[in-house]
Amino acid sequence: MTAETFSAPLAGTAVSGKRSDAADQERQATTSGVKSGASRTGTARLGTRGAGTAVRATSWRAERGVHAPAGPAAVLMVRPHRFRVNPETAADNAFQRSVVDDESLAAGAYQESTRLAEKLTEAGVAVVLIEDELGLSPDSVFPNNWFTTHPDGRIVLCPMFAPNRRQERRDDVVTQLRARFQVSEVLDLSAAEQRGEFLEGTGSVVIDHERGLAYACRSNRLSPGLFRQYCRLLGLKPVQFDAVDRRGTPVFHTNIMLSVGPNVVLIGAEMIRERSQRDWLLGSLRDSGRTVVELTEEQVTRFAGNALELSGAEGPLLAMSATALAALRPDQVEAISGTTRILTADVSTIEASGGSVRCMLAGIHLPPRLDY
Asked: Which residues does 145 contact at the CB level (< 8 Å), separation at least 6?
């Protein structure tokens, strides 16, 4: 773990949102209009610690009488018309699996994304649903990788590892976000691709908006220098760590094994093999006052960590796949349900590409437009 990680603020310590002059200059250098892509059509047992357990920590928020903030009440999804498994990402994505690429695969992915959007809408989450009719990128169904949104009105365009995913960046998507939400500026970091540097949005970086922390595990999809730059621009404190599977393969995206919501944390802690890193990270997360659910590696491989906490009409929701829910033990489900309702959908076809529900949802943290 880097020295920067250990300098992350303690729970309850405010993180300054101010940037240095150098960071301001860096921000100005990367602020731009939206880069256009190709033409498109359409728009546990509580108190028990260890792998696979859940711990409800003493809350510093409760001690101070502070209510937990809400998760995003809106998401952006892309509905794929020509879904297929991406061969360019198979080398470092151990979660992908081989399937027969035919019309039934595309039809299944279309139906699964439609049903997830319907379930979220029924639960009171606003869904901005974008159509991808041309299918120029196999992974367009995972929009959280190419942009991130922030409560101060900024959108960041992110550099992508696989060349055939770079055309997922769409100016019409940003236009739709501008129409519905307050966008103060767009920061375009995509030129880093030409230098061989990458940061795949909230796949690579899991943000704790309440404490101003950005968690990231090392992989081919995240360049350390660019991660630090991203954090400086957004006033976040970087927390970088190592996570690998039992074969020693790095976890390709942080959000596969870590979900940090206002109420619930899911973490594949046993995949952080270095004990000092694991203990520090778990301690920091428990000190935040959230319910911390530790997942086994087997549960992570079934996408139990790939979840997103949202704000629905009747309170907080934890969106995850049916595969993920089936991987959880009853005590883990009970721990989550103490504060947050679980919303599930079957996305087993899409999961063949190595991502699940969290990857399908680009959380929108932008302030809404009052005139929309």
From this structure: 139, 158, 160, 165, 168, 200, 201, 202, 203, 204, 359
Closest listed residue to residue 20, CA positions, set 285, 177, 231, 283:
231
φ, ψ of residue 230 in degrees (nearest 5) = -55, -45
DSSP 210: T
- CATH homologous superfamily of 3-43+48-363 equals L-arginine/glycine Amidinotransferase; Chain A (3.75.10.10)
Tokens of 254: 């942080």
Q: 325 vs 41, 231, 333, 360, CA distance in Å?
A: 35, 32, 8, 16
User: For 150-217, where are the alpha helices, taking DSSP H only?
Assistant: 171-180, 201-204
Q: Where are the domains of the chain?
A: 3-43+48-363
Of the CA atoms within 13 Å of residue 313, those in its CB half-sphere come to 8
Claim: this prediction has a pTM higher than 0.85: no
Q: Examine the pLDDT at 110 and tell me if it is beyond 60.
A: yes
Identify the bridge partners of residue 341 per DSSP, sorted by sequence position. Answer: 317
> pLDDT-based confidence at 139, cuts 50/70/90?
confident
Q: What is the pLDDT of residue 100?
A: 53
Furthest CA-CA distance within the chain:
56
The alpha carbons of the chain give a radius of gyration, in whole angstroms, of 19
211 pLDDT above the threshold of 80: yes
Cα 12 to its chain centre, rounded Å, is 23
- Which residues are registered as beta bridge partners of 188? 157
Sign of the Cα pseudo-torsion (76, 205, 157, 32, in order): positive
Q: Integer distance in angstroms from the first to the last C-alpha of the chain?
A: 45
In one-letter notation, the amino acid at residue 118 is E
Percent of the chain scoring above 70 in pLDDT: 76
- Residues 363, 71: Cα–Cα separation, whole Å: 9
Q: Is the pLDDT of residue 326 over 90?
A: yes
- Would you say 292 and 55 are in contact if contact means Cβ atoms under 8 Å apart? yes
Do residues 113 and 141 touch, judged by C-beta distance below 8 A? yes
Residue 339 — φ and ψ, nearest 5°?
-130, -20
